[in-house]
Write a structure and sequence with these properties.
Layout: H1 18-28, E1 34-35, H2 47-58, H3 71-85, E2 95-98, H4 100-112, E3 118-123, H5 128-135, E4 139-144, H6 153-159, E5 164-169, H7 182-195, E6 198-202, E7 224-229, E8 242-245, H8 248-259, H9 267-277, H10 282-304, E9 313-317, H11 323-332, E10 335-336, E11 338-339, E12 349-353, H12 358-370
Parallel strand pairs: 1-10, 3-4, 3-5, 5-6, 6-7
Antiparallel strand pairs: 2-8, 7-8, 9-12, 11-12
The structure holds 4'-deoxy-4'-aminopyridoxal-5'-phosphate (PMP).
Length: 372
């Protein structure tokens, strides 16, 4: 038998990073670009959380923690859920501290999706969703939300088949910045209830909600698998920490899988996450709201941009309707944004991240406007 020692497993076949790689290849030629492509906050970890992390390292908090995470942090998360969702049994529910929401997504999808199972989510979507579902042998089923990125429950209903395993939602959303209203979430919950579906809710941008208070489906629908993180809310992208809660049988298996994969979330990040939860981030959120307004004022009318209500992205229609072409033009003019086909079956929009200094953003917006 001819053996190929460098053979790649079949499951990797559908993983593809060519779209984003092309953009970064183009970007590599830029010197000092106006970078509006970055998916992380430009503010740093709050000092209170840094101090706790440094002290944790010095005092020897450098070992494995329990697989499910430190008890104190899980209790803090339980308390948060009790207050936000009014769960009377919040302290008894299962919580899992994960290595970022990415870690939570991987565990959730590997735990629930069988080969051939369909996972429904809206398009545009966070890139990881398609790849992780494919990795599990599942079938991503994307439901278009153009042009306004509102969720149309009838379209979701049309996408549901006997093979549907779960529905994934992401509000506030990456890359669109769309925030679902309470009404929309109630409609999703009642649809899910009608088909007895598991709903995975990725709420990593929960803090970044500018025009209405944030609402979670977790408070409306029991069969919700809720994922939240610290990466965006507290500028901790490099610290790899998030949390999950949801139906007990699923959380138990996710915890078991964590035991054999990630083992635990970083001990230092867990220590500091408790401190982070005490920090008021509203000044940062207010600053991002102002940046959102700058983006909308600059591009709203000219580009036909739908006003994003959350996260820190705008998903902007590309002049001429071809995002890849427009992004090339933007790059030629020293502005880096990402073409929509990285996040979508379509390539008609580009993603702009306004998580950057206001002055940089202003310069970028001026240039983009001149290209319209
Ligand atoms: N979900 C969404 C929608 C995201 O945008 C991101 C980060 N870009 C993640 C999950 C993963 O974040 P992390 O693993 O850093 O918590």
């Amino acid at each position: 038998m001819a053996r190929d020692p460098f053979a790649i497993a079949e499951r990797m076949r559908l993983l593809d990073a060519s779209g984003i790689r092309k953009v970064f290849d183009l970007a590599a030629k830029m010197t000092d670009p106006i970078n509006l492509s970055i998916g992380q906050p430009d503010f740093d970890v709050p000092d209170e959380a840094k101090d706790v992390a440094i002290e944790a390292i010095r005092s020897g908090d450098n070992k494995y923690t329990q697989t499910q995470g430190k008890g104190e942090l899980r209790q803090a998360v339980a308390k948060l859920c009790q207050e936000e969702f009014g769960w009377s049994d919040a302290m008894e529910r299962p919580y899992l501290i994960t290595s970022g929401v990415s870690g939570g997504l991987l565990l959730a999808i590997l735990t629930t999706v069988n080969p051939g199972d369909e996972v429904v989510f809206t398009d545009p979507y966070f890139v990881m969703y398609s790849h992780l579902v494919n990795l599990a042998g599942g079938v991503p089923v994307r439901v278009g939300t153009y042009p306004d990125f509102r969720v149309d429950v009838n379209k979701i209903a049309d996408a549901i088949t006997d093979k549907t395993r779960m529905l994934m939602i992401n509000s506030p959303g990456n890359p669109t910045g769309a925030v679902y209203t309470e009404r929309e979430l109630r409609d999703i919950a009642s649809l899910a209830s009608q088909y007895d579906l598991l709903v995975l809710s990725d709420e990593i941008y929960d803090l970044f909600c500018y025009d209405q208070p944030f609402v979670s489906i977790a408070g409306m629908y029991e069969k919700t698998l809720l994922l939240r993180g610290f990466s965006k809310s507290y500028g901790m992208t490099g610290w790899r920490i998030g949390w999950a809660t949801g139906p007990k049988p699923i959380l138990e298996k996710m915890t078991m899988l964590q035991q054999y994969t990630f083992v635990c979330a970083p001990s230092i990040a867990q220590a500091s996450a408790m401190a982070a939860l005490q920090v008021d981030m509203t000044p940062h959120v207010r600053a991002y709201k102002k940046k959102r307004d700058l983006v909308y004022d600059a591009l709203g009318e000219t580009f036909g941009l739908v006003k994003p209500a959350g996260a820190f992205y705008a998903f902007v229609p590309a002049p001429g309707g071809n995002a890849t072409e427009f992004v090339k033009q933007a790059i030629d003019n020293n502005v880096l944004v990402i073409p929509g086909n990285v996040f979508s079956d379509r390539d008609t929009h580009f993603r702009l991240s306004y998580a950057t200094q206001e002055e940089t953003l202003q310069r970028g917006l001026e240039i983009l406007k001149s290209l319209a």
